[in-house]
Backbone:
């Protein structure tokens, strides 16, 4: 475990690690100091950072007297394949999934902390690309948010554990528990595209027991977009605050599938969500099963839907055993339990 | 990736995972719902938790308008051996090392977020014990602080990534950069005991290429205490606030060895720390090399040392190439670079 030292510092010793003759050394060859300098060169200060990397901890402004905090981890195997995901993809996605959780509380993301466990034989360029992915995802999805701290360690299993912080700007958090009968059910962002991308990846680039790199030349129309949605999801992070300001009564991000997550929101609120299949696109089944797009699912008092959200149903009285209906029929959970189903390679 | 659901909830489906006939199923057999219930039953609410586990993110009170945040990861192999560390030890240590980082800023720890990546064949009792370790470490080291959120995933490599948050209570953060010439150098907590414990573990319980369980019956006097300091360190977390209130000019926790970390503080402050060997206990070499006790190293204006800190030297003008002196002689860094040296098993 190592706290990030100040930018440009190599620790007290001032001794640079031996440079490999290779321009792109492994992590083990580069040593901690060079790995950290590589990351920090790609880590701009955020708008909320009162104290950034370089000390025992970061200090982040929390103007409204509370902080929203969430953590999500990507592990090689269950969560991604290195044959499919570049370092950039992985940095982007690790940021995006956490930013979506902050957004789903109605908060504005302010800071990320990144705990990175990397196999010793990974190249330094992988860490560079990962850092670029974090930076670009913050800039694109949550301007003002930045990586404020982190931790580096070696591991046999590439693991990226991110904590995201956010500010409620004086509003109450929008939880999963506030949906009221008569509210509109609405969604912002994609549902099902990332899931389609995953199925394309498995179908086309997983011939035996292991993933192989993506060959764009063999992809049919729309498949590139779906793969991109899986590897670099772009959740509508800015719409979390928009929803909160508009009076969203409940909200969550869709990470485990719309059917399962809608059921969770319904359960927390003690209601049933009655969805309209015709609002779920050309393939409602795919939309209900898909989760990794990290769309924002929210409920609003009837008639106040803010821009960016589309209505997909109505909140109704709880139906025993049927937290989610689609065109009146109960929808079974089509979720994903990482402890039982994770990873086709497992 | 799964956000912790509300206590007692098993998600929308309400379907319990199939129970193993075994009282202590593996994580894979237990399924996510039961693993989460096991953890949450051991996760009391904290004094600062405005919203705890069960939503996309937690909400933590930050009365002073900023939040201190840090992350540190324990990975099986480089950071611990399962033959030596129980689940309880691992939960305790994961909490303790992060609480120490918050304390080292002069802040009061308010919340932990835990990202847990567990091999599928681990027993549920391991997760129970881990949760107990988190709870007890918070209660013992940082009353009022609690686990407010987390993430669960499967991984081939057992990994515990913790983020700790803290509140400065209106004070400025105590960084590494404020030591002034003439200040006293002081320390609170153990230095070298955890390092001794690690050497005992390797010498006695690592006969070939792998660790074996600790057999207390073969330990000499003092060795049990040293092993306990390595596996369940008890940094003086509460003294971080005490130091800040007393006017500490710089502070950090000693995680990579006193010599190396003192050099970091010296470098950040642009000074040299002149230590007195006679203040470093019976074995100054061990004290200078030891790090994993997570002692608090701080500098204070001469004469204001608060209770719990002992003086170990003086801040002097920077000596080129010698950030740390001991009895006037330069002290080389005896640090630890996880990217090059991690793990005797590696």
Residues:
């Amino acid at each position: 475990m190592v706290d990030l030292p100040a930018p440009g510092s190599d620790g007290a010793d001032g001794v640079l690690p031996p440079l490999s003759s290779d321009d792109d050394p492994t992590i083990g060859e580069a040593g901690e100091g060079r790995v950290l300098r590589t990351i920090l060169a790609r880590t701009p200060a955020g708008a909320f950072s009162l104290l950034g990397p370089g000390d025992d901890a970061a200090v982040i402004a929390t103007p409204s007297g509370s902080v929203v905090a969430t953590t999500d981890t990507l592990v090689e195997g269950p969560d991604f394949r290195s044959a499919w995901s570049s370092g950039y993809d992985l940095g982007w996605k690790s940021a995006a999934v956490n930013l979506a959780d902050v957004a789903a509380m109605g908060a504005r993301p302010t800071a990320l902390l990144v705990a990175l466990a990397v196999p010793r034989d990974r190249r330094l360029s992988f860490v560079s690309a990962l850092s670029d992915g974090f930076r670009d995802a913050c800039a694109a999805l949550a301007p003002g948010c930045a990586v404020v701290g982190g931790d580096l360690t070696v591991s046999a299993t590439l693991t990226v554990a991110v904590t995201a912080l956010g500010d409620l700007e004086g509003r109450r958090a929008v939880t999963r528990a506030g949906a009221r009968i008569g509210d509109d059910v609405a969604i912002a962002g994609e549902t099902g595209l990332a899931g389609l991308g995953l199925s394309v990846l498995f179908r086309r680039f997983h011939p035996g027991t292991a993933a192989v790199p993506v060959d764009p030349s063999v992809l049919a129309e729309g498949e590139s977009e779906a793969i991109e949605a899986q590897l670099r999801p772009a959740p509508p992070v800015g719409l979390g605050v928009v929803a909160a300001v508009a009076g969203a009564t409940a909200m969550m991000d869709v990470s485990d599938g719309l059917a399962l997550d809608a059921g969770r929101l319904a359960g927390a609120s003690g209601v049933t969500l009655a969805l309209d299949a015709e609002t779920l696109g050309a393939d409602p089944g795919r939309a209900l099963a898909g989760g990794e797009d990290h769309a924002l699912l929210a409920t609003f008092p009837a008639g106040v839907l803010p821009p960016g959200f589309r209505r997909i149903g109505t909140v109704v009285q709880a139906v025993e055993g049927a937290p989610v209906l689609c065109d009146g029929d109960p929808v079974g959970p089509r979720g994903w339990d990482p402890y039982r189903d994770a990873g086709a390679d497992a």
Summary: Chain B has two domains: 27-167, 184-334. Residues 1-21, 340-346 of chain B have pLDDT under 50 and may be disordered. The first strand of chain B starts at residue 49 and ends at 51.
